[in-house]
Structure formats: structure tokens, C-alpha cells
Amino acid sequence: MVSVISLIIIIFLSIIVTRIATIALMHTGLSKQSSRFQARSAFTGVGYTTGEAENIVQHPVRRKIVMLLMLLGNAGVISAIASLLLAFIGENEDDIAMIYKLLILLGGIVSLWIFASSDLIDNWMSRVVGRMLKKFTDLNVSDYDGLLRLSGDYEISELLVEQEDWMADKRLKDLSLREEGINVLGVNRKKGKFIGTPTGETKVRAGDKLVLYGRKSGLKNLDTRKKGIHGNIEHKKTINEHRAIEQRENEEDELESQPQVLVKKEEKV
């Protein structure tokens, strides 16, 4: 029974470690999804793709976080395997005791899964870890999701430009993406070249990866748009849709800003 409890505790600590590492990586500028994947990959020793590995290796703070995760992961995985073997192989017990152990283990794993998937716990841990990082480290703990309002229909996305895409071989000012409600934050070019805050004269080439900020629907539409008349028609259609949304939001904002006047009805005598 002690070995089963030890295994549950090891899994619980592993979840805590990877959750803290995820939050720390997010504070270095990585997205939540990428941070979670990198943390779990490093902790389990599974590995990840070359492009994502470069993002870690080239950043000194991320590199330290991942190195610490690898060290803790090696110890955690070995301890978990040893506890599992001791729980079901190392002791001579009858079938009822084995079933009892298995039920406790399954119940513990389900509880930990619920704990790991809880948004409430995630938000609470983010606040606590953020305060600790700010107090005890020099890590920039800006909340990028909060700063960029990455909620609702807004997100940051990376879009690979192919030769047949509508954007290929055009300057940014000719694309008029801002009229669609999309901002180009940067351009990742081949051989590791990065263009931050590109100007209107920056030409989009096939093979570029554009870092874009805008509505999910607009980014998805842009990703599937191809060259030709249909692409131009889709561009104009998206501009009109964005203007309509912008006008509606402005009208709602005006209504909310107007002082509400209470009108008293005259009582009939």
C-alpha cells in the first residue's frame, strides 16, 4: 500500500513541476500550448522538433528551465517505475488486496487528472507562481495573454506562406491586412532571420512564417486564401465584414459611455 501511495505522490509532484515550468516558460514569451508541450516533453525526455528546440536553446532562461526539468524528470520517471513495480510485483498478496490496490491507484490517477485539467487551479497557480518569479528571480513576468487580450476571438498565430498563397510576393502595404483587422508582428525568414515590426515595404516571400495577431476567423480565412480573383474577392469581403464588426462595437461602446437618464413618469391625478 505504501508503494501505491508513493506512486500517486510522485505523479502529483510531477504534475506540479510541469505546471510551474509551463507558467515560467509562458512568462518568457512562449504560448500556453507551446509551453505546456515543451515542459512535458523535457520532463518525460520524449524530445521535440528541431524548430521548437531552437526556440529553447537560443533563449538562456528557457534553456535553464528545460535543463532543470530534464534533471527532475529523470529522477521522477525512475522513481515512478520503481514504485509501480514494488506495488504489484514486490509483494505476495491475494487477489482481493491486488484489486484494492488497483482501485486506489486508478482513483488517485483520475483525481490527479481532474486536478491537472482544472482551469480554476491553473489560474490560481499562475498568479502564485507569477508572484514568486517576480519576487525571487529576474525573469520578466509580464502576462502576455493579458497584454494582448488573447481571449474570445483574438489570438496570435504563425502562418507559413506558400507560393500559391494570396499573400506571396506582395508588400505588406499592398495586402492591407490591417483593414481586415490583422496585424503583422514579425516575419520569420529562412536561415533564422527575423524581421520584427515589419514596415509596409516588407515583401512577403514564399517560405516566410508570419507572426499575426487578430481574430481567429480572420486568421483562418487568410490561411486558406489563394492567389487569383477569388482571393481578391475574399479580401474585400473580409474587409467589409471587419468594418461592420468595428462599427457595431463602436456603437455599443458609445451607448455604454452615454450617461443614463432616469425618466420619471408623471402620475395621473
What does this structure look like?
- The chain is an alpha+beta fold.
- The protein folds into two domains: 2-136, no CATH class; 149-255, Regulator of K+ conductance, C-terminal domain (Alpha-Beta Plaits), CATH 3.30.70.1450.
- It has helices at 2-26, 32-44, 50-57, 60-88, 95-117, 119-136, 144-147, 172-175, 216-223, 229-257, and strands spanning 154-160, 170-171, 183-188, 194-196, 203-204, 209-215.
- β3 (183-188) and β4 form a beta hairpin.
List keywords for this structure.
single chain; 269 residues; alpha+beta; Alpha-Beta Plaits; 4-stranded antiparallel β-sheet; two-stranded antiparallel sheet; 6 strands; 10% strand
Topology:
Blueprint: H1 2-26, H2 32-44, H3 50-57, H4 60-88, H5 95-117, H6 119-136, H7 144-147, E1 154-160, E2 170-171, H8 172-175, E3 183-188, E4 194-196, E5 203-204, E6 209-215, H9 216-223, H10 229-257
Antiparallel strand pairs: 1-6, 2-5, 3-4, 3-6
Helix pairs in contact: 1-2, 1-4, 1-5, 1-6, 2-4
Low-confidence stretches: 262-269
H/E series:
HHHHHHHEEHEEEEHH
Strand content: 5-15%
Average pLDDT, all residues: 76
- Principal-axis shape equals elongated
Quaternary structure type = single chain
Biggest sheet descriptor = 4 strands, antiparallel
State the end-to-end distance. Answer: 84 Å
Summing up helix and strand content along with how strands pair, one would put the structural category as: alpha+beta
